[in-house]
Amino acid sequence: MNSVEGLVTQIQGLSSTASDVLSLHNVLKQADDSLHAESTRLLPFLDQLDPSKHSLGYLYFLEACTAGPVTTESASSFVLIIARFISSCAAEQIRLAPDKFISVCKRLKDQVLFLEEPLRAVAPMLAAIRKLQSSTENLTTLHPEFLLLCLLAKCYKTGLSILEEDIFEVDQPRDLYLYCYYGGMICIGKKYFRKALELLHNVVTAPMSTINAIAVEAYKKYILVSLIHHGQLSTSLPKYASTVAQRNLKSFCQPYVELANSYTNGKIADLEAYVQANMEKFGSDNNLGLVKQVVSSIYKRNIQRLTQTYLTLSLQDIANTVQLNSPKEAEMHVLQMIQDGEIYATINQKDGMVRFLEDPEQYKTCEMIERVDSSIQRLMTLSKKLTVLDELMSSDPMYLGKVGRERQRFDFDDFDSVPQRFNI
Amino acid sequence: MDGEEDASNLMMEANSTGGVDEAPLSSTTTRRNRPIISGEPLDIEAYAGLYTGRTKINRLIFIASHCDNPAMELEALRMASDEIKKGENTQLYREVVQKIEGRLGPNYEMDTAWCSMIELKAEQRKEKLESELNSYRTNLIKESIRMGYNDFGDFYYAHGALGDAFKSYVRTRDYCTTSKHIIQMCLSAILVSIEMVQFSNVSSYVSKAEQTPEALDPPTTAKLCCAAGLAHLEAKKYKLAARKFLEVGLELGNSYSEVIVPQDVATYGGLCALASFDRTELKATILSLLSPAPPLFSIHNKVIDNINFRDFLELVPEVRELINDFYSSHYASCLEYLGNLKPNLILDIHLYDHVETLYDQIRNKALIQYTLPFVSVDMRMMADAFKTSVAGLEKELEALITDNQIQARIDSHNKILYARHADQRNATFQRVLQTGNEFDRDVRAMLLRANLLKHDCNLKASRKV
């Protein structure tokens, strides 16, 4: 009892300057176990602390409070408390104890999921990410949690705003896999297939020493999105993918690989029969929606091929070539594609003819010049980053040691001792 | 096509009157010694009369098994069995008799007496050859050993054991002393390989023979060119085959009738050239010879050397006419000649599985050549020129456009074909933007992966320390 109150006083006292906060941190670390022991009684003490000034202390108390199992009564109150804390806490203080912060946020997620109101935690989680990140290029453990909440709450746009940022630093590989996987799913939901393909590709080709389930699921979606977006699947993973992935991924995703083969053969009837036959397998992976999109994309691809050969074509002929049932269906498909901007055409209903037009983009406008210019700037920045990384790597002692040991020796002079360690 | 139906009708009529010789003559020639490979039904006797040796028998059996006409089939089988009886191949004899199934009367049933007599003689001869060979081998006289193996090869060849024949011929290589011997060995090996349909061996032995130029007289060079041409044809390399056949000199004459005759050289060479050469090469190699007036001065070596081919083409005037028609854009008559020739070409032992491909290639080339000079083409007129329906033509053109062999677009409503040339500028811009995006994506992924690997390394390093 006393220790807790003493702790509260200390927190209130030592939260003003940075050095005080550091010593407070040590005190709190030592008191952590006792706090956990008293977890049930800590709630009233929270009122004595101010989340914005005493963030570190508040954090420890909060973490100890929420350590227990989730119940309905506690859940709603905790959600409010945690949300308020996140919005008002001081970023420098919580960065001293990132694990605690992360576990508090995870509790928040558990509680809103328990209450089945994921939307309540979306904004707080976004704020939490911003406070925890050291820079926008940093991936924290909270990123995948946030994306999961966005998925469950179906607010894809907020999720997309996070996905726009480039990630270059990663704390934990597992975070990256989950982040890319959920990110891919959000992009699929918004039909940004190119970005989805990029994210899923990152998961599938990431360095890993053993196969994990995230990579397998990601590969399944990767196959389907690749079929929708490109109309084909490259048969082997690129060389930089890990060897375990190259060897094992295909065997885990056998029905999908066969679906891809059936798709590239181009016979729509075969494809549909295959999908029918394997409905439960696709359904158990929750990929039925994607698979249906794959089937409809084969019609689109065939119609697009027609634009390369014909200037005008009757709807009846389109229906026959693409194996649709009637000119009416063909008209609907073509109309949909025109609206989505996938082809350029006009439909003449009187004659039942479709006239295919060229892409009207002439690449002569100012916007186009700006686009090319900004693209060039962006690429130059990226190149510089790459060069910097390369230089860093070349001066890394471990790398030099390894290269030195393995270099070829041609001259007598080469046999002098190679420094194994630099004493700087 | 209509041309084909007429030809088969003629076949029916001709055989019902009891004599193939009474078939009406084609309009292109009224000479008494008619060309053998023509649009008319095949005159089997004349055809078979061109060849000698095993190829005659093989060709007759092939015709018998592939033609639809039972009278023709029986005729071929009869001639085959007669020819076999002149030789010593009992295995082949049995096969042919089985195929005849007694339909030709008692003379053509299994003559077991003849078979057993031949086999007995074969055994005796084989023993004699073996003992001779052994004695030569102990004496180590190179020339006699070589001749011994040669005799063995001939013996096996006559009895139909082609694999053993080939092995024996190849064995003589170690005992060849002059280049003439080498040439002889190569020629025998080539002959057996062609029979066995192992054309890779043919190519290797042809090149081996060509490496000894001092002993090569013109007939031999001609034979080697033919063999090489056949090998390329079998490998579906039509351009190379055409070039080889065009190099064959007139000295071939009938010296290689156990494999190929000049009519065949003309037909194979002409068709392959038409299917695979482009216009300039076609003109340079074949067409300049078709003009009656000789060139005043030599412009191109190929032309002069190829006066020969003109004489070859004289033997098959239909092929000559059809090449001429193709070059001068009379596509309807060209395709008509092709259609007429087809039934007989399918009966040719070397050409039958290439006929479809060659015909398709020639037809596609004709279509492409037709559309090349125009900005827009009325498909109805084109369909007339090619004697086909507009719908059929549309399908063919669609296939060619998808294959990128014609740069055009079809206006299906008005049935017009419009030429279309890719806009380079737009295509370049598109590629630029796409390359930029790909670079962006790849570099970002690379940096990410590098970071992950560094993370791994740090973990390992921290564990070690």
From TrEMBL, chain A:
Keyword Nucleotide-binding: no
Keywords, sorted A to Z: Cytoplasm, Nucleus, Signalosome
A Pfam family recorded for this sequence: PCI
Major localization listed first in the record, in broad terms: cytoplasm
Domain of life: Eukaryota
InterPro entries registered for this protein in UniProt: COP9_N (IPR055089), CSN3 (IPR050756), PCI_dom (IPR000717), WH_DNA-bd_sf (IPR036390)
Occurrences of domain PCI (ranges): 192-361
SMART domains, A to Z: PINT
Record's subcellular location: Cytoplasm; Nucleus
Keyword hit for Transferase: no
Residues spanning the membrane: none
Gene3D superfamilies for the chain: 1.25.40.570
Family that this chain belongs to: Belongs to the CSN3 family.
Protein's name in the database: COP9 signalosome complex subunit 3
Naturally occurring in which organism (per UniProt): Hibiscus sabdariffa (roselle)
UniProtKB/TrEMBL annotation, chain B:
Organism phylogeny: Eukaryota, Viridiplantae, Streptophyta, Embryophyta, Tracheophyta
PANTHER family: 26S PROTESOME SUBUNIT 6, COP9 SIGNALOSOME COMPLEX SUBUNIT 1
This protein's UniProt keywords: Coiled coil, Cytoplasm, Nucleus, Signalosome
Gene3D superfamilies: 1.25.40.570
Residue stretches in coiled coil: 119-146
Localization annotation: Cytoplasm; Nucleus
PROSITE patterns given in the database record: PCI
Region (Disordered): 14-36
Every PCI domain range: 237-424
InterPro entries: CSN1_C, PCI_dom, Rpn7/CSN1, Rpn7_N, WH_DNA-bd_sf
Claim: Transmembrane is one of the keywords in the record: no
Family to which the UniProt record says this protein belongs: Belongs to the CSN1 family.
Name assigned to this protein: PCI domain-containing protein
Xref: SUPFAM superfamilies: Winged helix' DNA-binding domain
Source species of the chain: Hibiscus sabdariffa (roselle)
Pfam families recorded: CSN1_C (PF21151), PCI (PF01399), RPN7 (PF10602)
